[in-house]
Every structure is written in structure tokens, then in C-alpha cells.
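Homework-ish question, so no full write-ups if that breaks the rules, but can someone show me the predicted structure for this set?
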Amino acid sequence: MFPFIFEWAWDISHLVFMGALWYALSIIGAGLTYCIIKSLYDTATQEGGDNAHH
Amino acid sequence: MTTPAIPEGVKRCSTRKFAIWLAVVGAVLLWGVYAMFLVWYKGLNQTGMNDAYGFALWIWADLAVIALGGGAFFSGFLTYIIGKKELKNVINYAVIIGFICYSSALLILALDIGQPLRGWFIFWHANVHSMLTEVAFCLSCYFGVLTIEFIPVVLENPKLDRIPFLHHLSHNLHEVMAVFAATGVFLSFFHQGSLGGVAGVLYGRPFAFREGLLIWPWTFFLFTWSAAAVGPCFTVMVTWLTEKVTRKKLVKQEIFQLLGKISGWMLLTYMIAKIADTLYWAVVTAPSKGFALMDFYSNNPVYGIWILIAELVVCGLVPAFILISRKGRENNTMLITAMILAVIGVCINRWVMVLQVMAAPLLPFQEWYMYMPTWQEVATTILPVAYGIILISLAHRYLPVFPQEKELNPGN
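A: Not a homework solution, just the prediction itself:
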């Protein structure tokens, strides 16, 4: 799974197989991170606005 | 009754009635959980499997629920990528059904590997030449995607929606859902296919072995295609069952018909490919290994030629022709019957590709090996059904799963 695990080999099979896995995981991770950060930002700015309003 | 936790504008049964319902299904669930702990505590000797029969009822259940859960990825593909906006009225339910199917598949795998504490080995010490490794990776990642798709539905619960962060999170997840849906399609294509590929590459098992394209046997493509064809049928079937149990109309008939039409054409093209594959296998592939077609369908008490006819004709071509005809789709009984047949057909396909493969003799002096599951295997296979019913009951009660419910049931 990682290059530091003993059975890892720098061959095309590992690069394609693991590359696809990490590509998919990166998209999922980036999407989720974006949503969480954007939600925190939206919550903070909306609360700020509400407080300012009050 | 209505409470703050129940979506606005819809009525649900009393808490007492709901608790009794949960208790009945929960009893079945507990039976399965007891069997599950027996398997984990005492080991795989609790099953009817042995060295000759390593793939059995659990793997069939696994393959079947994964195929039926294909409604989530294919509905997501149609909704978010192709742009069939009307399917938004059923996509929440498709995601919930997919979530149940995939979590059930992972639970069954946790039982089947014998030592779940070593389950992480398949990821950490990955064999990159194994189709099952690809299945494990894609299955786990896709379950993650389904969970992400399920979260906004949960967050739409009226009580949770009042919390500002959760409200925004739900909104933002909806905004980028197409990205997750596309990732889900990519992952599903490969794990559905690789499950078929596992059977197709078994060159020592002529009943399963198929030729193919590059490293992928034809079964790779047939499994993906059949899951995409039948997954939406299962979604409609479960929605229809939910309507019967709740005695409410939850989704407009046009949505059922649209999914029926898409499934019908997918099923018909799949059946053409499947019949061509079967013919080539019967005439060329199997004889090249020293087998005639009827060797696989005779001299045993269960697997006659009837199973092939049931899969290809009764539960394949018949529902396909019903679903592609406008008259068939407009008649609700015909529509639902066709969808049930299609679901049975894909289950038969997965059954023969797992159990008949193991049962068929390989050498002239061998007999058919007939396997009988133990009650522990049966109980743990029924367990996901009980779990699914409970999750669906909770989702229907507390989440706004069906956007059209209020409009379709104005009296409630």
C-alpha cells in the first residue's frame, strides 16, 4: 500500500493499482475537506452577521 | 403522529406501534448477531464450507447485495452526470438502499475472512495482481462515498437541520455531490467488474472460465452491466414495498416508469451480451477444456438446465421485453413483476457464478459436490435483511427521504 512496506516494488502494476486508489482517495478527501472548511466558514460568517444584526 | 424530529408535513405511526415493529425485526437481527458471534468466537467450523467449498452462501449474498446496491451508483450517474433531474425524487432512497447493501456486504466479508482482526492485511499488504484486492479497495472506498452521500440525507432531519454548521455542511455536500457521484461510478465500475472477473479468470474451473479483453474476462463487463441494469429495479422494488407497508404513495409513477425504461434497455443489451457469451462458452470455451454443455447441467439433484433457462429467459429476456414496452411499463403490476423477475435473475446469476462453479466436477472421476449451509450461515445472511429493514424504517420515519411524499398524500 505504501512504498515503505517491504513487499512494495516500483513496477507498473503497483503504480497503476495504487495510483488509482490514491487518486480516488484524494478526490474523496479533498471534496470532504472542502465541504467541512466551507461549512465552518459559512457558519462563522453567518453567525457574525447575525450577531452584528443583533 | 408528528413530533419535532419527524419531517414537516408528513404523518408517521405512533411511537408505540413503531417500537413494536422495531422489536419484531430486532428479534431477527439478534438471532443473526448471535450466529455472527458464534462464527467469530468458534471460527469457520460453524459453517458448511470446507477446503473444497471456500466460496458459499456468504459470497453469493455478497455478490447479490452488491449487484442490487448498484442502483445507488447508477441512479447517481443518471442524476448528477447525465442530468436526469427527475430522479432526484428517488436518489435519496437509492443512496440509503446502496448504503445498506454495501455495509451488509462488508459485514458479511468480515465474517467470511475468518479472522477479522487481520482484515486490514488486504490493504496494507496488497496483492496488486488480485481482482479481489481491487474489489476490497473499491468496495471500501465506495462505501465511504455512499456514507458521504448518506450524510446530507441524515442532516436534513428537522432537529439536526437547526444546527447551523450541520445545515451548511448538508448544503455544501449537496453542492459538490456530482464529484462524489462520479467517483462512485468509477469505483463501482471496477469493483462490480472485478467481482465478475474473479469467476472469469478461474481457468481451472471450466464452468466459470471466460475469455475476454486484455486482462479482463467477459464476466468483468457482464457483472458491471447487469448491476447497472438491475440496481434501479431493486430500488423501485424496495420503494414499492415501502409504499405497501406504509400505505402511502411516495414516488410518482412516472419516476418508476422512467427507471423501468432505462433498466429495460440496459437489461436487454445485457441479455444480448450474456446470451452471446453463454453460446461462445458452450460451443468453444468449455469444449476446449474437455466439457460439453450438459456436463454442467446433469447428474446432480439441483443444477439442471432449468437454471440457465430461468436466468436467461424467465428472469432475463421476459422482464427486459416488458420494461422496454410502453404498455408493460404503464401497467403497474407488469412493471413491478418485471422488476422482481430481473432482481431474481441477477441473484440466480450470482448464485451459479459462485455455488455452481464450486459444485461442478472438474475431473471425470469426480462427483458433484453439493453444499448445505448451516443455520449460522443462514442466520448471518438474513441478518443484513433485518438490519436493512430497521435502517429503512428509521430513515423513513425521521428523514425527508421522499420529496414528493407531501404532495402525493395531501390528506396526511
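Now go work out the reasoning yourself. Hint: Residues 1-48+385-394 of chain B form one domain.
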